[in-house]
From TrEMBL:
Entry annotated with the keyword Amino-acid biosynthesis: no
Lineage: Bacteria, Bacillati, Actinomycetota, Actinomycetes, Micromonosporales
Record Gene3D superfamilies: 1.10.1660.10, Vaccinia Virus protein VP39
Name of the featured protein: MerR family transcriptional regulator
Keyword hit for 4Fe-4S: no
InterPro entries tied to this protein: DNA-bd_dom_put_sf (IPR009061), MerR-type_HTH_dom (IPR000551), MerR_fam (IPR047057), Methyltransf_11 (IPR013216), SAM-dependent_MTases_sf (IPR029063)
Domain HTH merR-type, chain residue ranges per copy: 4-73
Cited SMART domains: HTH_MERR (SM00422)
Keywords: DNA-binding
Length: 372
């Protein structure tokens, strides 16, 4: 019985109130699954391990909803969890150190009467969107084998491959020597143990010599880059062959083609405004453009993935793994989801989109750019 700890004892050891522990139990986050001989609830060894992880994520500033996704991730074992946590803690330490350096630099500059530029002031913060939303990513985002096969085929005979904006490592071919580049610490920390080595950098400035790789690939990431043209130019500089999976963000190619953006979330249009058209991206790297149809049962939960399973968009965990929902803001999201829920219940969605139900794959503007 020695390894079973009462709620009171756990509160004492962790400095967390009994009330908070009860709350975690009520919301299903950490349940004391054992009983003391006197019949009181107690934490068994596995409960303690889970609680420790929850409290560590709390200390790192994660929301309870995000923590639930992290600790329930079936794809990661105990060792993998510790590695992920360690990566996040190290990153927090590095960021704090970088901020201290930046503050010292500014203090020094001010002492010398020099004003730092607004840009310099902001680089100190260096926030990444995926540092905020990335922990929800693995819940629904995984390799879709049919699309992966297209990407790997396009890589041709490349032995060494650079994966830019690599995220958690989906779509990395296992039979080649891969190097990953990913600016978000949260995404890097979620890469599985044994995944390809990952460098913290952005596409716009790749820390590699010219022509260091046989091929460079970028999957579902170009639309996040501050400067997509500069990033693609960098890919071309460091690799002989370039393969990019992206989407045609034009009005006709995407916004009007997909019922979700057309009928429920027109705000998505404001996110793509001013972005270089897919033809311009292809031109920059001298690529051919190939359409990629989305299978109706797509394994990777990207934005368009559930075109024939509309109920999926009502699920919070599906939306949280796709940045568009965060970027349009909570009001647009609430309205879109409520509208879709009503239309599914009334049969209006089915009426409007009847022709989709007969399709096994849909053309929704996804494109593979291949430059050889
Ligand atoms: C939708 S995720 C795709 C991740 C991965 N390629 C996949 O398919 O699972 C987009 C990724 O782009 C990364 N990203 C954002 N800005 C970037 C930049 N400037 N350069 C490279 N990657 C960037 C994000 O951190 C995020 O991991």
């Amino acid at each position: 019985m020695a390894e079973h700890l009462t709620v009171g004892r756990v509160a004492e050891l962790t400095g967390v109130s009994v009330r908070t522990l009860h709350h975690y139990d009520e919301i299903g986050l950490v349940h004391p699954s054992a009983r003391t001989p006197a019949g009181y609830r107690a934490y068994a060894a596995a409960d303690v391990e889970r609680l420790r992880e929850v409290l560590a994520y709390r200390r790192l500033g994660f929301a309870l909803r995000e923590i639930a996704d992290l600790v329930d991730d079936p794809a990661v074992d105990a060792i993998g969890r510790l590695h992920r946590l360690r990566g996040l803690v190290l990153d927090r330490r590095d960021r704090a150190a970088a901020m201290v350096t930046a503050i010292d630099r500014e203090l020094q500059a001010r002492a010398m009467g020099i004003e730092t530029t607004p840009e310099e002031k902001l680089t100190m913060i260096g926030a990444q969107l995926y540092d905020t939303i990335g922990s929800a990513y693995p819940a629904t985002r995984r390799t879709e084998p049919r699309i992966a096969a297209r990407v790997w085929d396009a890589l041709g005979d490349a032995r060494t491959v650079l994966n830019v904006g690599a995220g958690t490592g989906n779509y990395e071919p296992v039979d080649r020597e891969v190097t990953a580049v990913e600016p978000s610490a949260v995404m890097r920390a979620q890469r599985p143990v044994g995944a390809a080595p990952c460098v913290a950098a952005g596409a716009e400035r790749l820390p590699f010599e010219d022509q260091s790789f046989d091929a460079a690939m970028a999957f579902s990431t170009v639309h996040h880059w501050h400067d997509p043209i500069a990033g693609l130019r960098e890919m071309r500089r460091v690799a002989r062959r370039v393969v990019v999976f992206t989407h045609d963000a034009s009005e006709a190619g995407w916004l009007r083609r997909f019922w979700l953006t057309r009928d429920y979330l027109p705000e998505a249009g404001t996110l793509v405004r001013g972005r270089p058209p897919v033809e311009r991206l292809a031109e920059e790297i001298g690529a051919r453009i190939e359409p990629v149809l989305i299978p109706w049962d797509c394994a990777d939960g990207f934005f368009e993935a559930y075109w024939r399973q509309p109920e999926a968009y009502l699920e919070e965990r599906v939306r949280r793994a796709v940045s568009i929902w965060t970027r349009v803001g909570p009001e647009a999201e609430r309205r879109a989801v409520a509208g879709l829920r009503d239309d599914l219940a009334s049969g209006r969605w089915a009426e409007r989109n009847r022709e989709l139900l007969a399709l096994d794959a849909a053309e929704l503007g996804l494109r593979l750019l291949v430059a050889t």
